[in-house]
């Protein structure tokens, strides 16, 4: 009989090695390789297994697709992210920071699905059924076919599924459920792996969709082993700023649809409401043009969104002027200020510059460079640009405007919203863009502008 020798295994992804390593070479995590006993030697011969007709391999052309088609949840923005709806037998993981509204969104999904798909089982491992009932009453998510259970034991949850026989199961959350077959406390790597594997196997065997809520760590990644993201079919990220009511759902992984769609929601006193056309959420309500503002068209997934950028420039008496940004990259703004001073002759080295976006949206793409530059130039000269102006384009260090992706979609959205003047990559340099932007303003200061620029 072969002797059992000591080897090492990664607790995150299961990678094994004969020698200890401080970093797993598979998942690149540090401090996850531990000792594990494994049987080595000659492999025992596997006994053949009789394959039943139901388990027999079939031609891909003979497998029907009707049983795996999407069915809508009743929330169009959530269906957009999922690729058209929920697929029977799919395992969906929804993660997000505490208090962002994950439970509220899934309770709304449960109530809508209870109307369309009869029985829905909502298992809360963090709240009692009375607490969930109180929140459902506040958000008007009550329905007779919505069943609630407050359980933290995996075996009891499976028994609840057998008793209710639902068409949809929601577990909130996977890190608070424990199994007797796993080691450690609830939320540990082995427990999360065991709970997720069991629930996903139940979903596949019974053709039952399962929605799982996942916690996140302080750096924003999903808590638990990385294997959890590999096991599920869809991984969605629910994000938003607590200072604003806007929320976004993004698909990080989707086996049944695209991963570049974004769903927009708004948190209200009555729960969560979907925003089908968020065009007006990121624009100010000023009746007349104000200096230091410019509108750009940003891409959230495949959805173009108009975003207003505001800039304020004041003279500074400090040796190091302040550069304060909100919603835009501070290093990107510092580069744009240097380009404006060197290529456009706008002196900013003795000025405090404050730049912010309207509505709390965050812009990370370089397509917002041109709008930021126009807003800063408008604030310096106290000259507003027209309400009908929309600008998008990347600015290089040489002062040239480079093309950006999805230009047709941005132009079409700007035209639909009434922006008759659009500055994009067709304008060659930043100087030309500034001249064109300010000549179409509401003021009659062309001579002063010519002298300034």
From TrEMBL:
ATP binds at residues 96-103. HAMAP family: RadA_bact. A motif (RadA KNRFG motif) lies at residues 253-257. Belongs to the RecA family. RadA subfamily. GO terms for biological process: proteolysis; recombinational repair. Signal peptide: none annotated. SUPFAM superfamilies: P-loop containing nucleoside triphosphate hydrolases (SSF52540), Ribosomal protein S5 domain 2-like (SSF54211). GO terms for molecular function: ATP binding; ATP-dependent DNA damage sensor activity; ATP-dependent peptidase activity; damaged DNA binding; serine-type endopeptidase activity; zinc ion binding. This is DNA repair protein RadA. Plays a role in repairing double-strand DNA breaks, probably involving stabilizing or processing branched DNA or blocked replication forks. Residues 352-453 are annotated as: Lon-protease-like. Gene3D superfamilies: 3.30.230.10, P-loop containing nucleotide triphosphate hydrolases. InterPro entries: AAA+_ATPase, DNA_repair_RadA, Lon_proteolytic, P-loop_NTPase, RecA_ATP-bd, Ribosomal_Su5_D2-typ_SF, Ribsml_uS5_D2-typ_fold_subgr, Rubredoxin_2. Residues 67-216 form the RecA family profile domain. One of its GO terms (cellular component) is cytosol. PANTHER family: DNA REPAIR PROTEIN RADA, DNA REPAIR PROTEIN RADA-LIKE PROTEIN. The middle region has homology to RecA with ATPase motifs including the RadA KNRFG motif, while the C-terminus is homologous to Lon protease. The gene is radA. It comes from Leifsonia tongyongensis. Keywords: ATP-binding, DNA damage, DNA repair, DNA-binding, Hydrolase, Metal-binding, Nucleotide-binding, Stress response, Zinc, Zinc-finger.
